[in-house]
Specification:
Elements (H helix, E strand, L loop, with lengths): L2 H5 L2 H7 L5 E2 L2 E2 L4 E2 L4 E5 L6 E6 L3 H18 L4 H30 L3 H21 L7 E2 L6 E9 L2 E5 L7 H12 L3 E5 L5 H17 L7 E3 L4 H9 L5 E5 L2 H13 L3 E5 L4 E5 L5 H13 L9 E7 L3 H13 L19 H16 L3 E4 L18 E4 L5 H4 L6 E7 L3 H9 L3 E2 L1 E5 L3 H8 L8 E4 L11 E2 L2 E2 L6 E2 L8 E9 L15
Parallel strand pairs: 1-5, 8-9, 8-11, 9-10, 11-12, 13-14, 13-19, 14-17, 16-17, 19-20
Antiparallel strand pairs: 2-3, 4-5, 6-7, 7-24, 15-16, 18-22, 21-23
Helix pairs in contact: 2-4, 4-5, 4-7, 5-6, 10-11
The structure holds nicotinamide-adenine-dinucleotide.
Protein name: aldehyde dehydrogenase (NAD(+))
Enzyme class: oxidoreductase
EC number: 1.2.1.3
Length: 517
């Protein structure tokens, strides 16, 4: 353990979370096993090896699936509010483990400790939401066209839900899915990112305590570990009616096709290319805060990170100067130290992609306004710390059309009315988060209208980054179309059944069809 990690209390945190030097990577709840190769988890904070995890083999996967399908047989019959009680207890455990889990998220993924705690808070929030929802899995009733008939629809659990998650939200995405899936009566098999396997082990240990304390069977919460190959087993398995996959668009296209090939359902939460429109009526101070946090928070590694600023020419220089000046204030370094604003990228491969993006924007005719670069020397030994960069660019540059998962912000200019800005904002393949900064009601409403933003999230006078769990979260186009978390996102975890009950003494057919015997 490095000095940084020791000062931060990582040894204690790992112990509390049940992380060993070498961990079994497969679990059906309380039971752990694994026959696969070792995955080594290095911290991007200091480049140190944190611990190892044994990957799951196909045989391990098979054991997990048997356990999950068996558990579903009993779990589906438990009353939904009782399942809500399990999720309530899980939320309580998360409160208890919030600090060590927040620390692990921060150390293994590289986001700030505040953001690590925030991620665990999101888990707690979705548990609270799901508990209430467990008494509100409402269907509709309809009037039957036939006399003495009753008609209604009800929602039943789906079965085994496969969850594939990305490195950048190593714990929250799992809970957005599981908290809802569990109250709906599904059982879950989770494959975390191979870049953050320890977060998966820690979460599984926490839920296992709840399941044990309630004498629930193995199989309700399962964990598998490994790279895309183990994820593909979920894609192709007809025993998995729903695969919820969060990650790159490249991954989502493969998952979507493999799941669709067996007519399964997929819930896709993929890449974004998020923009803020800054109109002549924008509050510049608010714009700068929203844009800078959106672009450099989590070192630009949020699916909702701000990648493009679309600024009206009349205020372009003012906004540009203010943002460039704000970048001059940024402190880059150890994310466990609350004085720093920007932590590391996840690994050196991400650093390569960042360097390539900066070279490409220049090659395409862009102009660098704030120089990037990789930091070296004391405190930067992991090789993952980069300077947030800003470039003037055009929306049709290939690199601007692409999601670079790093702190690179492109400034784009528009000269007409808000319609032109909306066209630029919508002129990318992705459709996750979008925002407009304006005090002009007409501009705001145009942005929110059917001819406005084509994204799943559209904000006024708020940046693109971050979302509350109460709303449905997700995006359109190459972001995949999925919705999870709040609102009625629960419906995707259930199957809908229409029921018609005849309490008469005859059998009238629908549409007045006569069939007399
Ligand atoms: P990634 O696509 O490299 O990996 C994501 C997960 O998919 C990993 O667990 C990986 O092992 C798995 N995977 C890869 N190929 C697979 C396949 N063929 N079958 C099954 N599983 C497969 O993404 P990443 O680098 O971990 O995360 C960054 C990306 O995730 C960014 O594009 C970001 O925008 C996106 N993201 C989106 C959301 C959202 O809600 N829209 C949230 C977080 C991250």
């Amino acid at each position: 353990m490095s000095t940084i990690a020791q000062q931060f209390g990582m040894t204690e945190a790992l112990e509390i979370l049940g992380i060993k030097a070498v961990n079994e990577g497969t679990s059906t709840g309380g039971q752990w096993f694994s026959g696969g190769e070792l995955i080594e988890s290095y911290s991007p904070v200091d480049g140190q090896l944190i611990a190892k995890v044994k990957a799951s083999t196909e045989a391990d996967y098979e054991k997990v699936m048997q356990s999950a399908t068996e558990a579903f047989k009993t779990f589906r019959l438990m009353p939904a509010p009782k399942r809500g009680e399990i999720v309530r207890q899980f939320g309580e455990k998360l409160r208890q483990y919030k600090e060590p889990l927040g620390k692990l998220v921060s150390y293994e993924m590289g986001k700030s400790y505040q953001e690590g705690l925030g991620e665990v808070q999101e888990m707690i929030d979705i548990c609270d939401f799901a508990v209430g929802l467990s008494r509100q899995l409402h269907g509709l009733t309809m009037h039957s066209e036939r006399p003495s008939h009753r008609m209604y629809e009800q929602y039943h659990p789906l079965g085994v839900v496969g969850i594939i998650s990305a490195f950048n939200f190593p714990v929250a995405v799992w809970s957005w899915n599981t908290a809802l899936a569990w109250i709906c009566g599904d059982v879950c098999v989770w494959k975390p990112s191979e870049k953050t396997p320890l977060c998966g082990i820690a979460c599984q240990n926490i839920i296992a305590e709840v399941l044990r304390e309630n004498n629930l069977p193995e199989g309700i919460s399962c964990l598998i570990n490994g790279d895309y190959k183990i994820g593909q087993l979920l894609n192709r398995d007809t025993r998995v009616p729903l695969v919820s996959a969060t990650g790159s668009t490249r991954m989502g296209k493969i998952v979507a096709q493999e799941v669709a090939a067996r007519l399964g359902r997929s819930l896709l939460e993929l890449g974004g290319n998020n923009a803020i429109i800054v109109t002549p009526d924008a509050d510049i101070k608010m714009t700068v805060i929203g844009a800078v946090f959106g672009a450099v928070g989590t070192a630009g590694q949020r699916c909702t990170s701000t990648r493009r600023l679309i600024i009206h020419e009349s205020i372009y220089d003012k906004v540009k100067d203010a943002i460039v000046a704000a970048y001059g204030q940024l402190r880059i370094g150890n994310p466990l130290d609350q004085n720093n604003h920007v932590g590391p990228l996840i690994d050196t491969h991400a650093v390569e992609l960042y360097n390539k993006a900066l070279a490409q924007v220049v090659a395409e005719g862009g102009k660098i306004l704030v120089e990037g670069g990789v930091l070296t020397g004391a405190g930067y030994e992991s090789g993952c710390y980069v300077k947030p960069a800003i470039a003037e660019a055009k929306n049709d540059f290939a690199i601007v059309q692409h999601e670079t998962f790093a702190p690179v912000l492109y400034l784009l200019k528009y000269s007409g009315d808000v319609t032109e800005a909306i066209e630029i904002q919508n002129g990318v393949a992705q459709g996750l988060s979008s925002a407009i900064m304006t005090n002009n009601l007409r501009e705001a409403e145009a942005f929110l209208s059917a001819a406005g933003s084509d994204c799943g999230i559209a904000n006024v006078n708020i940046g693109t980054s971050g979302a509350e769990i109460g709303g449905a979260f997700g995006g359109e186009k190459e972001t995949g179309g999925g919705r999870e978390s709040g609102s009625d996102a629960w419906k995707v975890y259930m199957r809908r059944q229409t029921n018609t009950i005849n309490y008469s003494t005859s059998l009238p057919l629908a549409q007045g069809i006569k069939f007399d015997l």
